[in-house]
Amino acid sequence: MHLHQLRYFLRLADKLHFWQTAEDLSITQSALSRHIKSLENELGFQLFERNQRNVRLTAAGQLLRTEWQRLLDELEAVHRHARQLSTGEIGSLRIGHSGSAAYAWLPRLLASFATRHPLVQTELIETMAFDPEQRLLTYQVDVGFWRAPARNAALCSTAVFSEPLALVLPDSHPIRAETFGSLADVRDEPFVLPSLTTDVPYIQELRHLFEQYGYQPRLTITSDFGATILNLVAAGLGLSVLPMSYASSPLRGLRFIELPHASPVFMVWRRNDTSAVLQRLLAEANQLNTIS
């Protein structure tokens, strides 16, 4: 039994006329008759009652007309779903990201991507600074947006966005943007930052930034979470240096002074990942890329 035979049967069941059905199918009437006869022989019963003037469905034919149409509709839906999966029209993406990326370029990318690909589901997973690549290598996420390029040879990365760093102060602090010179002005202030002892590229950037001004900051509290750092600064527990995108936080009691230092965001993915959905996201990211 072949699918084209089922389709021939269903068309004949609608028309109840061999010549007209054969014309619609662009086959000869004798070929149509052979296909129907072959189908009946395989089933072991008649599907149509025929005479020289009329064609009508048998009771068994009426049942199969309903059930085969349902099955073919379901089969077509499955095929359509598979085609959409293969082309990336539908699917899912687990996106790892640093906390700061969620304040910056990433929401703009996701909004644009969702407009073009409304059937793709995305899940955002905030990752710690010290383990992002492991999330990709162990297939916990499909793509990442982090403050460091890929270091593992199994991964690819490209810079997609860059933004200035900012000195973050409580609103009550006497330093203002008009009077601020450089980070040298706040060398004696307490700071709230991530631990500066790790070898994460973003942390290395921070260490190098302070070294340019001849000191390492005095840390009162350390945290890897930008939102936590903002709350601690607002509470007067110290100053911080964060990507400028955190200025969009709704938290009150903070001021941001832009620094002459930039921090890039990298898109990172597995080198061997050929997912069509991922390829569509890569294309979207390249269109919105503000660096290259």
TrEMBL record:
Q: Pfam families this protein is in?
A: HTH_1, LysR_substrate
Per the record, the domain of life is: Bacteria
Q: Does the keyword Transcription regulation apply?
A: yes
Gene3D superfamilies from the UniProt entry: Periplasmic binding protein-like II (3.40.190.10), Winged helix-like DNA-binding domain superfamily/Winged helix DNA-binding domain (1.10.10.10)
Q: Which GO terms describe its cellular component?
A: protein-DNA complex
**What region holds the HTH lysR-type domain?**
1-58
| SUPFAM superfamilies, per database record | Periplasmic binding protein-like II, Winged helix' DNA-binding domain
What keyword terms does UniProt attach to this protein?
DNA-binding, Transcription, Transcription regulation
Q: Which Gene Ontology MF annotations are present?
A: DNA binding; DNA-binding transcription factor activity
The family database entries (PROSITE patterns) matched by this protein are listed as: HTH_LYSR
Homology family: Belongs to the LysR transcriptional regulatory family.
Protein name per the record: LysR family transcriptional regulator
Taxonomy of origin reads: Bacteria, Pseudomonadati, Bacteroidota, Cytophagia, Cytophagales
